[in-house]
Design goal:
The chain is 43% helix and 15% strand. It is an alpha/beta fold and 192 residues long. The radius of gyration is 15 Å and the shape is globular.
Length: 192
């Protein structure tokens, strides 16, 4: 089973996460594929996430509905990564593995990230984090470069994450690259 959590903006993520979901579903690698779609995507334009508690509840409910502790995988991009990490830190069932793309570290640049993570930010949601995780971070990522992210994780004692450098521009992550990493990481973790 796999849970997919997209980035925040409807314009750049709604079709993208559908393409990821289609590719994952068509592969047959996962029995169940659950994709989160955000409430604010129903608004006109490229609105920002307003009801973080609603989105966190939706993530937790999706996991409760279909996933068994330690027997599902999470893929999350950008703000989806923040939602996943916060929900997990607040007691959501633990996945077997996770693949994250485009970790949004600079909270001040986008108030949505700060709202999702709470006042303490990423350090608070990473306390005790042990899920085998692959993070794809583009070399030109605007939020934090791969080397800076790796240093941050080491500084906070997180040893369960591997960081790979993505080749896409900025905060864009191609469906093919993401799906390839999801399958490879899930297969590697499940074979242990």
């Amino acid at each position: 089973d796999i849970l997919l959590l997209p980035g925040n903006g409807k314009d750049s993520n709604q079709q993208w996460i559908q393409d990821v979901s289609d590719a994952v579903s068509e592969s047959g690698f996962f029995k169940n594929v659950r994709t989160i779609r955000y409430k604010h995507w129903h608004l006109s334009g490229n609105a920002e996430m307003e009801d973080v508690d609603h989105e966190l509840a939706k993530v937790r409910q999706a996991v409760d509905d279909f996933a068994v502790e330690g027997e599902y995988v999470v893929f999350a991009k950008s703000v989806g990564s923040a939602l996943y990490l916060r929900a997990l830190s607040e007691g959501m069932r633990r996945p077997r593995a996770a693949v994250l793309a485009g970790i949004p570290m600079k909270n001040a640049e986008n108030p949505t990230f700060a709202t999702v993570l709470g006042e303490a930010g990423f350090p608070a949601v990473l306390v005790g984090y042990t899920v085998p995780t692959l993070i794809i971070q583009n070399e030109s990522e605007r939020f934090i470069r791969p080397d800076g992210l790796l240093a941050f994780l080491k500084q906070h004692g997180v040893t369960s994450c591997d960081v790979v450098t993505g080749i896409d521009p900025g905060h864009s992550y191609s469906v093919d690259v993401v799906v390839r990493h999801v399958f490879a990481h899930a297969a590697r973790v499940m074979s242990r």
